[in-house]
Amino acid sequence: MENQELLINIENSIATLTINRPKYGNALSKDNYRAIMEAMKSFEDNEEVRVIIITSTGDNFSAGGDVTQFKVAIETKTHIPYDTVRETGYMIEAIIKNKKPVIAAVEGFAVGAGFGLAMACDFIIVGESSRLIPGFSNMGLPGDTGLIYRLYRAIGSFRTRRHLMLNETINAPLAKEYGLAYDVVPDQTVYPTALKLAQKLAQGPYIAYAYQKEMMATIEYPALDEFNQLEAKYMHEASKQANHFEAVEAFLNKRQPNF
């Protein structure tokens, strides 16, 4: 895959997918969603690959959606297309339903779609200063990447409302308390820790892992596609509203939004 925004390395049965947009805080452009989905499917079909790591360059895992693209969508009155939000769901599904174990190595912030991307993985390794931030409410948006679906099942309805509506950060200790983080480690050791876990999994019964993931997906995500359709509908509608316009202007001008 020739894509400098997503770097791929396969070595010793471990595929590493690196988000490479450090200038933008590794925010995900609309083209990245399909590219990540295609990469995940290629790993699944590759018999050489037994485990997948998702990581990033720079200081942050992912700042979420690219707000500069939100601004363009507002100015051109294209808003956030229904099909683009559907792509976020296809990306998440390609991770959740992948036959191979997937590890997120999260350093710095994982915001919005970046948080959703991490939550789709089987294991999340976070640095001591890492922050998981829903982010969507601050953009005047309901959410995508299956984040509500996954978070609700992981931490319950009232905690999900608290973090989603109030945009309260989940820091590393809280991520461990909630059971979201497999491990919390010193910041500079996140990827090495993820690699060590990947090596352990790569030596394990990979066929059994595939069956386990399929059964767990059946239990956990019986209505994932239907939920993604709702995400796409409401994200598109919200992107046409004054709340979203104000949120984007406030973010780009580094001020608090006035809803």
TrEMBL record:
Q: Which InterPro entries match?
A: ClpP/crotonase-like_dom_sf, Enoyl-CoA_hyd/isom_CS, Enoyl-CoA_hydra/iso, Enoyl-CoA_hydra_C
An example of a GO molecular function for this protein is: isomerase activity
The signal peptide here is: none
Gene3D superfamilies in alphabetical order: 2-enoyl-CoA Hydratase, Chain A, domain 1, Lyase 2-enoyl-coa Hydratase, Chain A, domain 2
Which Pfam families does this entry report, sorted A to Z? ECH_1 (PF00378)
SUPFAM superfamilies to which the protein is assigned, alphabetical: ClpP/crotonase
State the UniProt keywords alphabetically. Answer: Isomerase
Family, per entry: Belongs to the enoyl-CoA hydratase/isomerase family.
User: What is this protein identified as?
Assistant: 2-(1,2-epoxy-1,2-dihydrophenyl)acetyl-CoA isomerase
Annotated organism of origin:
Globicatella sulfidifaciens DSM 15739
